[in-house]
Design goal:
8 strands, 109 residues, mainly beta
Length: 109
């Protein structure tokens, strides 16, 4: 007999938020974000810095990226996780940053 739990998270330990104190630099756009020890995240572009939060789906690779100050959704997408690489394939219709590529590729430094 197999018992499953609602607390099972198949992506635990793989998301950028699981690496406190890390910095993730986008290799195909001029943005980066930092994960500080207080679970705060800051997108830095050439034009602005935005405090945001990741709203990850617990059971799938989906994510919504939302501003902290006004709960505006910056973009939604599907993620691919790795220990040192993180990809987001952005849903075009939900994209605050109109000039970003469809796939964002971040490397952890």
């Amino acid at each position: 007999m197999c018992l499953s739990s609602c607390d099972t998270d198949p992506y635990k330990g793989e998301r950028p938020i699981d690496y406190p104190g890390s910095k993730w630099i986008c290799v195909n756009a001029d943005i980066y974000f930092e994960v500080d020890n207080a679970d705060k995240y800051i997108f830095n572009t050439s034009d602005e810095s935005i405090n945001f939060e990741f709203l990850f789906s617990q059971f799938g690779p989906e994510v919504a990226v939302q501003r902290v100050d006004n709960n505006e959704t910056l973009f939604t997408g599907k993620c691919e996780f790795g220990e040192s690489t993180f990809r987001i394939i952005i849903n075009e219709e939900n994209n605050y940053f109109k000039d970003l590529p469809i796939t964002l590729i971040f490397n952890r430094i």
